[in-house]
Write a structure and sequence with these properties.
Length: 324
C-alpha cells in the first residue's frame, strides 16, 4: 500500500524515484510473533544483539513459510529492483520503542534476503546494530558523528557486496540538518563527460575501514561506475582518495574526475528527514546516500540504525534478468 510521505522532503533536482510504502499493517499481523521471539527460554540475549546470521536463523524458524513475509519481500523487491531503487517504509507508529523498531527492521531484511555485517579485527562477532549506538574508537563511531557526509555507497572497500542499505530512524534531531541524502547515481554519471565516464569505468583502489593495517597490495579494486545493464555503482570519495595516495596513483586527471562526480551526485540528490518509525531502503548498487550535518545533542541524540542486506542467490539472478 503506497501512501503519502510523512517525512520532510526537499528536492535538490530530479527525484531519484524515491517511493513510500506503509507496511505497518502488514507488520502488525506479525507483532505477536515478533515479541515472542525474545521470550523463549533458550534465548539468552535479545534478537537485536545477535549476529546477523543468528538473527536470520531465529527469524526463519519463527516465520517459516509465512505468507505475510513473502508479500513484504515481493512488494519491496519490485521497488528496489525496479525503476524506483529507493523506498521509505513505515514500520510502526512513532511511539514504538527502539527495540521493537530494530526487530521489525531485521524482519524486513529477512523478507528481502539476508541481513549481513562485516567482520572486523576488534569485533569479529559484532551484532548488526552495535556499530551505531556504541562508539568504536577504531572506526570513529557513527553514534556521535554529526558532520555532513557526501554521497557514497556502503562496503566500497570490502570484498563482500552489499545489495541493499537500510537506515531506520530511532530518533531524529529536532534542530536543523540531519537529512539523509538519496543520490541517483545513474543520472549523475550520465551527466558527466565521456572522458570522466571512461575513467570511472576503470578499477579504482579503496581503503578498508574495517582493516586499517591493510597493505595497498590487498586493497579492493573495482570500477566506480559501469554504464551497462544492470548499472553498477560503488563509490566512497574518502576511501578512494586515501587509496590513490597510498598506492602512488593520484593524478590531477583522476582527482578532477572524482570532483566532477561528487558535484553531479549532489545535483541529483534528494534530502529526506526521516521520522521515527521510518526505514529508508536503498539499492546500494545503483544509488548513493549521504547526510546533511546537524548539531549533536548528547541529551537527545539522533539515531539511525544501519542495516546491510544481500539478495538471496535466486534474487541476485532476478536482479540481472529484470534489466536484460
Amino acid at each position: 500500500m503506497v501512501t503519502a510521505a510523512t517525512s520532510t522532503l526537499s528536492q535538490h533536482n530530479e527525484t531519484p524515484h524515491l517511493d513510500w510504502i506503509d507496511l505497518s499493517r502488514h507488520l502488525d499481523v506479525l507483532a505477536d510473533r515478533v515479541d515472542r521471539m525474545d521470550k523463549r527460554q533458550s534465548r539468552t540475549v535479545s534478537l537485536v544483539n545477535e549476529t546477523p546470521s543468528s538473527a536470520d536463523e531465529i527469524i526463519a524458524k519463527a516465520f517459516e513459510s509465512d505468507a505475510t513475509i513473502f508479500e513484504i519481500g515481493e512488494i519491496l523487491r519490485s521497488t528496489l529492483l525496479g525503476r524506483q531503487g529507493a523506498v521509505i517504509v513505515t514500520l510502526a507508529q512513532a511511539d514504538a520503542d527502539a527495540e521493537r523498531l530494530q526487530k521489525l527492521q531485521l524482519l524486513v531484511g529477512y523478507a528481502l534476503g539476508h541481513n549481513v555485517n562485516h567482520r572486523s579485527e576488534d569485533q569479529p562477532e559484532r551484532a548488526l546494530f552495535e556499530i551505531t549506538p556504541r562508539t568504536d574508537v577504531r572506526y570513529g563511531g557513527n553514534g556521535e558523528n554529526a558532520s555532513s557526509i557526501g554521497p557514497h555507497t556502503d562496503g566500497s572497500g570490502v570484498q563482500a557486496i552489499i545489495d541493499v542499505l537500510g537506515l531506520c530512524c530511532i530518533a531524529q534531531t529536532q534542530g536543523s540538518g540531519g537529512q539523509t541524502l538519496v543520490s541517483n547515481a545513474l543520472q549523475a554519471v550520465l551527466s558527466l563527460t565521456e572522458k570522466d565516464r571512461t575513467l570511472l569505468a576503470q578499477p579504482w583502489p579503496r581503503t578498508n575501514p574495517y582493516d586499517r593495517k591493510a597493505e595497498p597490495t590487498t586493497f579492493v579494486r573495482r570500477p566506480i561506475a559501469l554504464l551497462r545493464v544492470p548499472f553498477e555503482f560503488s563509490y566512497h570519495p574518502q576511501r578512494i582518495r586515501q587509496a590513490l595516495d597510498r598506492c602512488g596513483e593520484a593524478t590531477p586527471e583522476r582527482f578532477e574526475a572524482l570532483a566532477n562526480l561528487d558535484a553531479a551526485l549532489w545535483r541529483y540528490s534528494t534530502a529526506v528527514k526521516l521520522e521515527r518509525g521510518e526505514l529508508l531502503l536503498v539499492n546500494n548498487r545503483r544509488f548513493g546516500h549521504g547526510r546533511i550535518g546537524f548539531a549533536h545533542d548528547p541529551m537527545s541524540p539522533r539515531r539511525l540504525e544501519r542495516q546491510w542486506i544481500s539478495w538471496r542467490a535466486s534474487e541476485a539472478r532476478l536482479s540481472i534478468l529484470r534489466h536484460e
